[in-house]
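User: Before I run my own analysis I want an independent prediction to cross-check against. Here's the chain; please return only the structure tokens and, at the end, one sentence I can use as a sanity check.
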Amino acid sequence: METILTLLQNLGDMGQTVVDFFESTPSYFEQIFIYLNAWYIKIRLVLLIKYLELSYRTAEFLLNEIGVTELIISTFNALPSEIRFYAFLFKIPQAVSIYLNFIATGFVLKMTRV
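Assistant: Structure tokens:
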């Protein structure tokens, strides 16, 4: 008698498992869409970083073509030696170059936006 009750209990558990599967199917689809959305965000972020890198390299190229880098170098070389020493010690030419690259990158980003 107990084996029959165990068999019926197992059949009931199997039926409940099937019912639970169909009840939780919407959450499976929700998890799939969450996973796909996370991948979309990751791919978009990687592409935006690559776009920013391309814009930075374009800005560097433009500054070199215009001659801004040479202008900064020649201006700082024209300074008196003591001021030039401290300017290079505190890396002022590099700071000016980074700032101009920042402005030029912003310009390139604005010009290439569609």
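Sanity check: The radius of gyration is 32 Å.
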